[in-house]
Each structure stands twice: as structure tokens, then as C-alpha cells.
Amino acid sequence: MSEKKRAGIWYAIIAFGAWGVLPLYWKALQQVPAHEILAHRVLWSFVFVLVILVALGRWKSLKEALTNRSVSLAVLLSSLLISCNWFIYIWAVNDNHIIETSLGYYINPLLNIILGMLVLKERLNFWELFSLFLAFTGVVIRTVQYGKIPWIALSLAITFALYGLVKKTTKLDTITGLAMETAYIAPLAFIYLVFLGMDGAGSFGVSTLDVNLLLLGSGIVTAMPLLWFAQGTQRVSLSTIGFIQYISPTASLLIGVLVYKEPFTGGHLVSFGFIWSALLLYSFSQTGFMQSLQPEYFKAKNVN
């Protein structure tokens, strides 16, 4: 294995590992309302990424992107999507729904496939289609068990999948893209935090030192995994990234069950089992052996 590929694998492992243990970080801020955490996350992410842009001399790339109308509109949409995703995730973690958040990020890769098929006109082979069927079955089982649609999981999966689709079409580098996304929302976040402080309802500056530091650090824990992820994708194939990305929801699931004692019943196991099977099948769907086992119709059509 080359040094480049080895480095890429480690970058990806660190990125997805960091995302997987983020519930521990947000749980440490449980006494702070989710909307206030989100405002801090946006504001300090913008400040942190801006420092990186200046340090790397990339200020010009941000200026050029901001003057491009089509890019600006696309990034505005992506900033709204990722803000919704962050808010739902923070609220869900602090309201003891860590297992359901992990379900959302297990569903997300498969939803990416659907968007690729519908929007980008990508073609799927038999095993990829069958993996979607298995995942859909798992979600239906969970819905029946839950007695209602698992909106937390689906909201996280949908917003992040749409965010990824918009990012793919704009093709901005990670640092510039994140700087623009947070730049659109940061002024609103700042105004909101100022009003909270004037009203005496804000947590920053009046809480304990550890809470203040965690709020300040929210920008770093947001930006760094994205930067590591970008470094990983530049060095290894997307199929390798696909295997590694399941570290994140698996870690979150284990944290929810083992650390915070959220219930994981036999019903959970059945529904997650379908989704895990779908992910494994999809991961192996491109191998020569699985391709040879496709029905003749799919071989003839070369749908892969």
C-alpha cells in the first residue's frame, strides 16, 4: 500500500471516528438549549475557517465564489440544509435519541444512491437495487415498531443527502465551501446570541468555564472532521471511503446503548439488521463475483 493511500485511510478513519463520538461532545452541553448550541457552532465555525483561509492565503477564492451568483445561491441552499441537519442532530442527541440519529446516518448513504439515480441519472445494478429494498424494509419495520414515522432519522438522512448533492454540483473546495456556508448564517447567529445575552438568557460567559470552552470549541469540532474527510477523499477511492464511513453511525449507536443506556430492543435489532445487510450488500455489489451473480437482464443492460 502506498504512503498516499495509507495516509488517506487514516484521514478518513479519524474524520468518521470524530463524527461518531460527537454525541459525547453535545451531551456535555446538555444544559444549553439546542438552538443556542447551533448558533455557537455556526459562529465559531465561521471564525475558525476564516482564520484557516487567511493563514493559507485563500481569501481570494472566497471572494471569487461570493461574486458568482449561481454558486452563491447553491451555497445558500447548502447552508440552510446543513444548519437544519446540525440543529436536528444536536437536539436529538440531547433529548436521548442517539440511536435514532445513528439510524439516520445508516440510511444516508443509501439515500445518496437514490438521489444519484433520480437526479444525476446514475444507473444501478441488481444488487444495488436489492440493497435499497432491504434498507427500505428496515425503515418500514422501524416505523411500524415506533408507531409513527422515525422523523429524526429520516430528517437527518434527507437533509445530509441533499446537502451532499448540492455540494457535488457546486464543486467548491471544502474550506471555501464551509466558509461561505457559515458566512451566510453567522450574522444571524451572532445577532441571536447578542439578543440572548442582552435578555439574560444566554449561556456563554455566565456558565462554568468548561461549558464556555466547549461552546468556543464547537467550531473546531465542526470544521476539523470536514477537513480530514476532504484529505481522505483526495487520496483513496470512494468505495474505500464507503466502507470507512460506517464507523460514524456504529460508534454513535454503541455510545447510545452502552454509555447513555438508551433501549435497544429485539425490534431495533431486526430493523437495523436489514439496514446493515443492505449496506454490506451494497459495499460488495461492485465486486466481480457479485456482478457475475446478477440476473441475465441486468447483465444484458449493463446497469452498473
Account of the protein in words:
With 304 residues, the chain is an all-alpha fold. It is 81% helix and 0% strand. It has 14 helices and no strands. The chain has helices spanning 3-27, 34-56, 59-66, 69-94, 98-118, 126-146, 151-170, 174-198, 209-235, 238-244, 247-259, 266-284, 288-292, 296-301. It is globular, with a radius of gyration of 20 Å.
How would you sum up this structure in a few lines?
The protein has 14 helices and no strands. It has one domain. With 304 residues, it is mainly α.
Key features?
304 residues, 14 helices
**How many structural domains are formed by the residues?**
1
Number of helices: 14
Name the beta content range.
under 5%
Distance from N terminus to C terminus (CA atoms, Å) equals 27 Å
Question: Level of helix content?
Answer: over 70%
Q: Tell me the Rg in angstroms.
A: 20 Å
Q: Which H/E pattern describes the elements? A: HHHHHHHHHHHHHH
What is the total tally of β strands? 0
Low-confidence stretches: none
Biggest sheet overview: none
Judged by helices, strands and strand pairing, the structural class is mainly alpha
Mean pLDDT: 84
Shape: globular
List the helices and strands and how they pair.
Blueprint: H1 3-27, H2 34-56, H3 59-66, H4 69-94, H5 98-118, H6 126-146, H7 151-170, H8 174-198, H9 209-235, H10 238-244, H11 247-259, H12 266-284, H13 288-292, H14 296-301
